[in-house]
Specification:
This protein is mainly beta and 186 residues long. It has helices at 2-15, 71-75; strands spanning 30-34, 43-51, 56-66, 80-94, 101-117, 120-139, 142-160, 166-175, 178-185. The protein has one domain: Porin, CATH 2.40.160. An eight-stranded antiparallel beta barrel has the order 1-2-3-4-5-6-7-9.
Length: 186
Amino acid sequence: MRVRTLVFVVVVLLLIPSAAFGADGSRPRNLISFNPLGPLIGLYSGSFEHALDDEVSVAVSPTYYNWNFGLLGLLTDDDWTFWYFSVDGGANYYFDRTLEGIYAGGVAVLGYGTVGYRTEKVNTLVLGAQGHAGYRWIFDWVAVAPQIGMRYEVVTADYEGELGAVPPTSVGGFSFPIAIQVALAF
């Protein structure tokens, strides 16, 4: 059952971009991207960015990770549970023209996940913010953008299981994400 679900999701993700073509010669106002290798490990992520005017765009990036829907799920027993869902939403400012050239922006992060083994489980709530900068090239209907950033997240975790309830614990930390985004421009 898991293999069929994985194959279905990969096929759908590969077909979605075909609806994005149809440029009429004008500059693109939208970008859509997804992680083509992520489904192999149960990671489904992507982003949508829309130009509001000549300098500013808004973006939303949902992420869903469930190792039962990837190769890890095929290699582990059903006693393990691991899933995570998050949404990043924010804006980018373009110094040249929107969706192209040098940009800087920020996003807010909201996520929730669970890690568990049999009757034990840890639930997590993630809140964070990220600042980033990059450069985007658009070649007809394909956009490429290397990006660097600084992200701060606070993770609050609580335990449920045979040992009884444990009060929630919070921890915060910085990360420095580096990415190369390939997107469809339309």
